[in-house]
């Protein structure tokens, strides 16, 4: 018998090489939508909430407050529901209704901020609430428990699932926790593994993939871990997201389309290799966006 938290992690690695035109390279997707909260963010959320709980940051009945674009908020709402911790989530008003409804289903309070001000303004609001003294902000962008979750779990899983044969790891860059923690672990096992970050092209809006302004660059980001960056357009992310569903039977979101697009583009450039990309969530929370 399993408890909720034991179901987080140990997600499957799926061979999606048939999406690539290069038969000499294997391409795998790590299916993070199999986590109970439906995304890779379950890992970091569990680590951050339990870390705050154990350190006494929530003593005195403080509520958690967090700025999020979606998946982290859903994961935190799920975990806080289990632990009976009140939580308020701050996110831009253009978040899909599925994401907002899911957060509220778990009992979270949701504050919507103007879409044109982006998540950077949501982060400012969350910080102000933290500074008031009534809330504790987990601050996924500066919380070491974020990347450590992936150092402890995602990296070791990929290493074991590929029998140590992984040559390239591809991850969308949002809070950068996934790429930082996983990259550090894989580099410790084999310094020759290439860690590849995915960013949006200028003007592209891809939920879960960011190009931060210097003032808002996540403090947990370690540029020495990332060997290469690939820019992906919104159109390419959507096209690849649809290919995942219609050709591989994998129903995922736009950031997963972005990371897979980068992995497939990378595979075209290699003579041989084993490429692993993060398919970070499920597609059901994006249906109202109309991209399918």
From TrEMBL:
InterPro entries reported in the protein's UniProt record: Cys_synth (IPR005856), Cys_Synth/Cystath_Beta-Synth (IPR050214), CysM (IPR005858), P-phosphate_BS (IPR001216), TrpB-like_PALP (IPR001926), TrpB-like_PALP_sf (IPR036052)
CDD domains tied to this protein: CBS_like
Domain Tryptophan synthase beta chain-like PALP: 6-281
Catalyzed reactions: O-acetyl-L-serine + hydrogen sulfide = L-cysteine + acetate
Cofactor field: pyridoxal 5'-phosphate
GO molecular function annotation: cysteine synthase activity
EC class name: transferase
Metabolic or biological pathway, per its Swiss-Prot or TrEMBL entry: Amino-acid biosynthesis; L-cysteine biosynthesis; L-cysteine from L-serine: step 2/2
Entry protein name: Cysteine synthase
Species the sequence originates in: Neolewinella agarilytica
């Amino acid at each position: 018998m399993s408890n909720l938290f034991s179901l987080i992690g140990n997600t499957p690695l799926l061979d999606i090489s048939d999406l690539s035109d290069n038969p000499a390279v294997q391409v795998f997707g790590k299916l993070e939508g199999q986590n109970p909260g439906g995304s890779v963010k379950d890992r970091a959320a569990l680590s951050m909430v339990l870390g705050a709980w154990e350190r006494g940051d929530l003593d005195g009945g403080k509520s958690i407050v967090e700025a999020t674009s979606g998946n982290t908020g859903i994961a935190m709402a799920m975990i806080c529901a289990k632990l009976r911790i009140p939580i308020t989530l701050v996110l831009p008003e253009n978040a899909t209704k599925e994401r907002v409804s899911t957060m509220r289903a778990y009992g979270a309070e949701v504050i919507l901020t103007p879409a044109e001000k982006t998540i950077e303004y949501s982060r400012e609001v969350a910080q102000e609430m933290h500074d008031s003294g009534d809330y504790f902000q987990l601050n996924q962008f500066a919380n070491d428990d974020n990347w450590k979750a992936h150092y402890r779990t995602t990296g070791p899983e990929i290493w074991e699932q590929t029998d140590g044969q992984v040559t390239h790891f591809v991850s969308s860059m949002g809070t950068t926790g996934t790429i930082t923690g996983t990259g550090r672990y894989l580099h410790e096992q084999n310094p020759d593994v290439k860690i590849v970050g995915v960013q949006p092209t200028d003007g592209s809006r891809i939920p879960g993939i960011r190009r931060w302004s210097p003032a808002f660059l996540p403090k947990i980001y370690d540029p020495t871990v990332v060997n290469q960056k690939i820019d992906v357009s919104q159109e390419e992310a959507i096209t690849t997201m649809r290919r995942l569903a219609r050709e591989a039977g994998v129903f995922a979101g736009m950031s997963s389309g972005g990371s897979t697009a980068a992995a497939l583009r990378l595979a075209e450039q290699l003579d041989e290799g084993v490429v692993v990309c993060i398919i970070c969530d499920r597609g059901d929370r994006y249906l109202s966006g109309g991209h399918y």
